[in-house]
Specification:
By secondary structure, this protein is of the alpha+beta class. 55% of the residues lie in helices and 23% in strands. The protein contains five helices and four strands; from the N terminus they run H-H-H-H-E-E-H-E-E. Strands 1-2-4-3 form a four-stranded antiparallel beta sheet. A hairpin with a 6-residue loop joins strand 3 and strand 4. Helix 4 runs antiparallel to helix 5. It starts with a helix and ends in a 6-residue tail after the last strand.
Length: 183
């Protein structure tokens, strides 16, 4: 028995129902196929935008290559080597000295060594501060100078609940040294 024979034996109501079912199946298959195609097209567009943005960043790096080479050379020449864990104590002493200069109160100091990476190794000092806003800004400026290789790994500042003219904060500073075996 062929499909034509089978179709001929159906009454008009069954023929209409089979046509509706076939139409629904056809629409659903097309909807699925077109959805996949448009999804792939959207993915390709997003990938193209990402690649164009990457290309723009690379063009900037290429254009500024001399600057980055000068900076890398300056780092290699000026970044001090790590002498030992005692450098963390030295960092904390320098921070206390700068804080005293600006009347910033240092509380709960702690020191330690940071994880080493291929670019650097370091020591850190974490502490709480209490100070009015203007001296705190001058303290932050004096601590983080390019030649000191000091970076703020984390800072949390809040207005003191007891005295709204004072700021309270938790800070973690690190001094980065030349990578092991770099000098």
């Amino acid at each position: 028995m062929t499909i034509a024979g089978w179709y001929q034996r159906l009454n008009p109501r069954e023929r209409r129902l089979s046509a509706i079912v076939a139409g629904i199946i056809f629409v659903l298959l097309n909807w699925y196929a077109w959805g996949k195609l448009f999804g792939a097209l959207d993915h390709a567009r997003a990938d193209l935008v990402q690649r164009q943005n990457t290309r723009k960043v690379q063009e900037v790096f290429i254009r500024e290559r001399d600057l980055w080479e000068k900076r890398a050379k300056w780092l290699k020449e000026h970044q001090p080597p790590l002498k030992g864990p005692g450098d963390a104590s030295t960092l904390l002493d320098q921070i206390k000295q700068i804080a005293g200069k600006h009347n910033v109160l240092i509380e709960s100091p702690a020191i330690g060594t940071s994880d080493a990476t291929p670019e650097r190794q370091g020591v850190f000092a974490s502490f709480d501060v209490k100070s009015p806003w203007p001296p705190l800004v001058r303290f932050l400026y004096d601590v983080q100078q390019p030649e000191s290789f000091v970076v703020f790994e984390s800072i949390t500042l809040n207005i003191d609940a007891a005295d709204p003219t004072m700021m309270r904060g938790k800070m973690k500073l690190a001094r980065w040294f030349a990578p092991a075996g770099g000098k």
